[in-house]
Amino acid sequence: xPAKSALRRTFAVIAALPLLTLAACGYGSESKxxxxxxxxAGAQKIDGLDSVKIGYFGNLTHATALVGNQKGFxxxxxxxxEAKYQVFNAGPSEIEALNSGSIDxxxxxxxxxxxxxxxxxxxxxxxxxxxxxxGVKLVVNPDKIKTLKDVKGKKIATPQLGxxxxxxxxxxxxxxGWKVDAESGKxxxxxxxxxxxxxxxxxxxxxxxxxxxxxxxxSKLVAEGAKVLLDxxxxxxxxxxxxxxxxxxxxxxxxxxxxxxxxxxxxVETNKWINANxxxxxxxANKQLxxxxxxxxxxxxxxxxxxxxxxxxxxxxxxxxxEAEHAVKAGLLEDPLLTGIYDLTPLNTVLKAAGESTVDDAxxxxx
Length: 367
What we know:
- By secondary structure, the chain is of the alpha/beta class.
- The strands form two sheets. Strands 1-3-2-4-11-5-12 form a seven-stranded mixed beta sheet, with helices on both faces. Strands 8-7-9-6-10 form a five-stranded mixed beta sheet, with helices on both faces.
- The chain contains 14 helices and twelve strands.
- The longest helix is centred in the first third of the chain and has 23 residues, at about 5-25.
C-alpha cells in the first residue's frame, strides 16, 4: 500500500474515533444556562424556529461564543427563538454534530472545517464568518530547549493528529529542513499527540519537552515553568491567521437565512463589545468557561492567554487557504477543492448595516 494512502486511511480512522464515543454519550455537553440571557417581552421567533443550536469549544480562542452566550448577545438577536449551546472538545465531533443536525451553527478551527468540507465533497457546511486570530504558541522546558534549533531531537506535543496546531507544527518542522513522519510523529522531532486537557500534566511529568498549543493551554504550561519560544503569529503576514471560524450547515443556511443573519449580527456585536471592553469581556469568557467546565482559569493563566488573541469578524480566508496547503504538504490532505467553502454574503450584509468594513473570501466563495 502506498505510504500516503496508508497515512490518509490512518488519519480517517483517527478522525472517526471520537464518533465511537458519541454513540454512547452524545456529541457534546450542553452548556449550562444561568439565566443571564432573557427573552425580551413581545419578542418574536425567527424563521418560525423554536431554537437555534450553537456549538463551540471550551477554550479562549472561542471567546466570541463564550461571551455571546454569557452576556446574552445571541439570545437577544434571536428573540423568542431559544439559543441552545453544546460544548465540544474536538473538531471531528463538532462536524459530525453539524452533519447530523444536532447543531446548526458552530465555532471551529480551520482544519476541521477544511476536512469536513472536503470529505463531504463540498456539500455539508459553509464558513460564514471569522471569530479569532492568534493565540497559538510553542512553549518549552527552558532547561532543555533554549533556542529554536534545540527543538530538534525533543518531544513536542500537539493536540491531535491533523488538527490546526499539528499541521502548523509539521509545516514549521519542514521549514527547518527536518524530517518527521506525519502519521507516527517520529523523526528529527518527536511529535506527541496529546489532548490539551492532559498536556500540562505530561509537561510536569517530563514526558514532553514542550508543546505547540492554543490558549489557554500554552499559558497553563508557562504557569508550570515553561517559556514561550515562538508565537505562531510571528510566522504570518501582519501577524494574523485564522484560528476560529463560524460554520453553518448548508441545509440550515438555505432554509433559515434570517436565523443565520441574527447569529452573525450577535457575533459582530459581541466582537465589538469584546474589543471595546477587554477586561470585562475576559471576565465574562472566564465565567462561561467555569459554567461549562466547572472551573474558571486563574489570573496567571487567563491574563497572558487573553492578550495573545485578536477577535475579528474577518475570516482571514487567504490564511485558511495557506493552512490547507500546509496540510497537503504534510501528507495529511489530498489537494483540496475549497471553492464554495465560504458564503460571506450574510456577514457582509450585517457588516454594511453596522457601518463596518466588509470582508473578502479570497476567491473561495460560492460562485
